[in-house]
Amino acid sequence: MNPLVSIHDKVFGLVETAGTWLLPLLARFVFAAVLLVYYWNSGLTKLGDGLFGLFSPSIGAYSQIFPKQLEAVGYDVSQLGLSHWAIVMAGTYAEFLLPLLIVIGLFTRLAALGMIGFVVVQSLTDIYGHGATDLATLGAWFDNQPSSVIMDQRLFWVFTLGILVIRGAGVLSVDALLRSRAQNVATA
């Protein structure tokens, strides 16, 4: 039995060693493969027309982020305040910037933490702003139905992002490059 345990320990010792650099890289790959285009497309729907659309969000942006408030003012965006505009712009920019930072591995822990916050706010907006309370969309954990958008899918998103918060971007990242340069400067 000891040889079997020894082989097990050696094999999985190598897996664990590889996992320290491979797991963050795979988490960033999964994020890029599943969520990068999703968030960038969502951000594009929020931009207004032309070059100044970067500073003038579309009505769709307000309807996605503040559905009830927009309806209350008769879909007249000019009736919403500066704080609404600032939140819409911050959310729109976050949909472009945070995923980019995660994919290239720059400020990865902070970007992943920001994305976790974004997913939580997105989910709460879906539930309370858009009324996504039907069981198929909202779902529940431990319900034998793994296909709900909010409780099931977004838990996987947050788990993947949590790996990046805990482990960082890994060795193949801008963070690692900057860390290496900083150490070289410190030892020089």
TrEMBL record:
Topology within the bilayer: Multi-pass membrane protein
Positions of transmembrane segments: 20-40, 96-121, 155-178
Superkingdom assignment: Bacteria
Pfam families (UniProt xref): DoxX
Entry keyword set: Membrane, Transmembrane, Transmembrane helix
InterPro entries associated with the record: DoxX (IPR032808)
Subcellular location: Membrane
GO CC annotations on file: membrane
Name of protein: Putative oxidoreductase
UniProt organism field: Ruegeria marina
Source organism phylogeny: Bacteria, Pseudomonadati, Pseudomonadota, Alphaproteobacteria, Rhodobacterales
